[in-house]
Amino acid sequence: MSPIIEAQDLGREFTVSSGRPLRRVRRTVTAVRDVTFSVASGEIVGYLGPNGAGKSTTMKMLTGILRPSRGRLRVTGLEPSRQRTRLAGRIGVVFGQRTTLWWDLPLRDSLALTRHLYRVPAADHARRLAELTELLELGPFLATPVRQLSLGQRMRGDLTAALLHAPRLLVLDEPTIGLDVVSKSTIREFLLRLNSEQGTTILLTTHDLGDVERLCRRVMVIDHGRLAFDGDLSALRATAPSPRTLIVDLTAPAPPIEVAGATATRVEGPRQWLELSANPAEVIAAVSATHRIADLMLREPEIEDVVARLYRRERTASLGKDG
Amino acid sequence: MRLHLAVFACGLRRYSTYRAATFAGLVTNSVFGLINATILLAVFAARPEVNGYDATDAVTQVFLAQALLAPVAAFGPPLGLGERVRSGEVAVDLLRPAHLAPWWLAHDLGRSAFSLLFRSLPTFAVGALVFTLRLPQGPAHWGMAAVSVALAMLVGFALRYLYALAGFWLLDTRGVNTAAALLGSFCSGLLLPLAFFPDLLGSSLRLLPWASMVQVPADVFLGKEGVLGGPLGGLALQAAWAAALLWLCAALTARATRRVVVQGG
């Protein structure tokens, strides 16, 4: 089966003017360069990167809003910028910070409009709306004007609006931004179910690494417009290894522990944080030989730490190359 | 087509949620109508006729202008599209499998239809209660007046859509909107009937698109000789502007969306 997204040497530049009128300085800024990847049907892929790395630019090219400056791009077999309207009928898009819903009207009205927008047969539309209403618990606020919805409710409404035409690909730009823990988890569970039950391919950008750990089997990291990593989460951890942390609760406060294979990075009363460079079992044995331990906790590196390390590594590598 | 009917209905219902604003607008239109009419009546007390207008014609045009103010929006407010370009919200509009111009046309006609019913008719009724107004004679004349108002709404939309499209190049349409409101209120005949201007200026302004929003419909309604002679000439002028401007809207939309820069991340 052909991939659902195919990007080859994708690039986008912007011309930026600065300075005073008449003395404008124009320069070209490259937002995305030489990005090549493909996404197969049924995958959930996280597209990560710091602000300004080129994530949103890529998303806009994928959905056809922005025309690439160079490279080849196919989404569901279409060329997005030339076939934007046709493509829009095949994909669902949610930009977390923007809404497609009618601000002043009850949520139900916006959802009803999608039937005409995507030419969905009335029976299919009603069935899918009933399903989504149940899964995302929309019932209590279907009749509420969108401007009165909470952010979590609005996001669930936007997700529904993007899915009523049963798209093969769902593109999400920061779908959990600003949401509380419960709303985030509702949305994550829903996305997992959508992917496993209906085979919907999902591409999402996020700064929320909980999203990544819960949802994405594969992650792509973009930095300074280039694809810095493409692989699964554990490979990302291996590429930019981050130490595990042993948290030790002693029976009484003590000066920072000094043992081989660990460095104390933080001390708070009887609790100490040890960054591990050796096997945890050996370190625990060494600590218990000299201290009385009340409790122990081993913390895996957070994906956040991993990505930050990857960025730093990339940056030093590129600095080295330039210098 | 069914999509655009649905969008039209959403546009209409959207404005119906702001009852207090509608009522306030209605009061404003009526009060300004009363003030303008009183001033013009004072003028006509000194002179029985100005350029073929008598006092009744003048007062009727004042209330027509106040009634048309909301549906054609000659004085603003600008189309929401301009603000969406500025904030980057337009990305969402471009993600719909629908063309931008017809979508906004349907949306805006929903708004105009709502204000026609709930602002124009009551405003004109207030004028008719207080003063003697000149009404069209017979169903054919009423029909032409209705078509003229519909064409005025199309021209009003097309102009505001073009102002908003400028945002794709300028990124901020607030300056355009200020200029547009000035041009719109002066050249349309909203501020002062174009009939009161010196002949050459008055008839030149009547040929420009802005006049098709207020002055030309008023000519048709009052049965005056417009610049193209008679109500049918007026309708032809409006139809020509509506067609030309809507074509321009479609053509420029294609260019604008090709160079789109979505602002705000």
Can you give a write-up of this model?
- The complex is a heterodimer of chains A (323) and B (265).
- Chain A is of the alpha/beta class.
- Chain A folds into 2 domains: 5-239, Rossmann fold, CATH 3.40.50; 245-300, no CATH class.
- Chain A has 10 helices and 13 strands.
- In chain A, the strands form 3 sheets. A 6-stranded mixed β-sheet of chain A has the order 5-6-7-3-8-9, sandwiched between helices. In chain A, strands 11-12-10-13 form a 4-stranded antiparallel β-sheet, with helices on one face. Chain A has a 3-stranded antiparallel β-sheet with strand order 2-1-4.
- In chain A, helix 8 packs across helix 10 (303-322).
- Chain A starts with a strand and ends with a helix.
- The model of chain A has no long low-confidence stretch (mean pLDDT 87).
- By secondary structure, chain B is mainly α.
- Chain B has one domain (2-258).
- Chain B is 75% helix and 0% strand.
- Chain B is built from 11 helices and no strands.
- The model of chain B has no long low-confidence stretch (mean pLDDT 91).
- The A-B interface holds A 14, 51, 56, 60, 63-67, 84-86, 88-89, 93, 95, 97-100, 102, 104-105, 109-110, 112-113, 116-118, 145 and B 2-3, 6-7, 10, 13-14, 17-18, 88-89, 91-92, 94-99, 257-258, 260-262, 265.
